Amino acid sequence: MQTAKRLFFSLDRQTECVADYIEPDRYSFLEQLPENERYIPRGAGLSYVAASFGSKSISLGLSKFNRILAFEPSGEEPTIVVEAGISLHKLHLFLCPQGLRVPVEPGHPQISIGGCIAFNVFGKNQFREGFFESCVEEIELFHPQKGLLTCSRNENTTLFELTIGGMGLTGVIVKAKLRLKRIPSPWLNVQKIPFTDLHHMFQVMKNESQTADSLHSFNDFTSFGKGLGRGFVYAAAFSEEDTAPELLMTFKSLERKPTRRFALFNRLTIPAFNAAYRTLNTRLKPYERMPFYRFNYPIAEMSFYFDWYGRKGFVERQMLVPEAKLDPYIEKFEALLRKYRPQIVFGSCKFFSGKQCHLRFAGTGIVISMEVMPNAANQGFHDALDELNVHMGAIDNIAKDSRVTKDLIASEYPEYGKFRDLLAEYDPHRQLASALSDKLCL
Ligand SMILES: Cc1cc2nc3c(=O)[nH]c(=O)nc-3n(C[C@H](O)[C@H](O)[C@H](O)COP(=O)(O)OP(=O)(O)OC[C@H]3O[C@@H](n4cnc5c(N)ncnc54)[C@H](O)[C@@H]3O)c2cc1C
């Protein structure tokens, strides 16, 4: 099988490069991979950052490894065995009519299971279901020099732990056995609860976390006066009564292509978009009955959304602030917003619970996400926010933010050195590498 040169973009358009690409369609092909090359697995290629390509690596597209291999729907803990290139969409179409789901789902249906494991992703229900690791029972991993290895919590445990959130650097996840969860219906009752600022939002989320199945917020960071950060919490619970089948489970591909477009977001349109979105949701539609698919994947049909950022794309900031530091953090964070007035198009928060290890974006606290215009004028804000995060023990998400450097990550993640050393011990030749791992010196 021949490799082909291809132009790759990160979703945020902050990194692009030409690299070799190949899309194997059978296991025997993997076994024939030359041992002296560098590789990096690629799922749907939807990462915000350059995690599944690199100019010195061959990108291995896994989209043809997309079959369901075994399914055990009965019993307390239903399970499924899938090839890792399968999309969340394909799994949803199979599982949902049977009253089942993958318990942790990130926000786009095109995303692959391999990508979910490699970034240990989270959904809108993180506080209830944890990270993707919580539903992975077993992985089959291929390494060009080591062949196929099975790993789980009982077998090759160090490798299992390194592969979850391991950014594809331990090998190609070929298959995974996943734990599933039953759902009472494919419909959610969604309430939109307004809040006046970030402190208020945290209280609302904490209260709602007792009963909601899913929680996230919309935050308006465009007015720098009293209502800075105001917005509403989406508090969703599965409907117990409504069992009508779900409709319109479709999506449009988010694959990035070259563009010459200018951004539609600017100083006039950003505040207008935020005000309109807030008003529409809190005044006109404070309650909605929503299909599960549409709630989970709100921009599934809106492939144009990221194009509105134009050819320069955007900078995604996503940080996890420890609960114990939340109040002082919010004060300092708001002071930075007022000082630098960055152009934030879209803001959102999630409520997290869990433990941090390796380079996983995990812990207990609040996750603040922002899509920021990539203007040079916003650089002062980013630098000051990096400093604040290091000072307050917050961590930036490596999977989302193309700006992060090795020094920043080494300062924020206590196990940076341990993760790097374990990788080197497992694979001294570091045969799996991406533009991201090169940048982080992994
Ligand atoms: C609209 C949108 C919403 C999102 N929402 C969320 C969210 O709510 N929560 C969240 O956590 N993330 C979210 N993400 C980020 C996304 O979940 C991750 O970036 C995910 O890794 C993308 O999966 P992918 O299949 O596109 O993988 P790719 O982008 O192709 O690869 C991502 C990483 O996974 C590795 N990888 C992929 N397949 C394999 C494999 N078979 N074996 C080994 N390694 C592999 C790659 O090497 C790379 O390091 C969102 C992304 C988008 C575009």
TrEMBL record:
One of its GO terms (biological process) is lactate catabolic process. One of its GO terms (molecular function) is D-lactate dehydrogenase (NAD+) activity. Residues 14-183 form the FAD-binding PCMH-type domain. It comes from the Bacteria. This is FAD-binding PCMH-type domain-containing protein. The lineage of its organism: Bacteria, Candidatus Kaiseribacteriota.
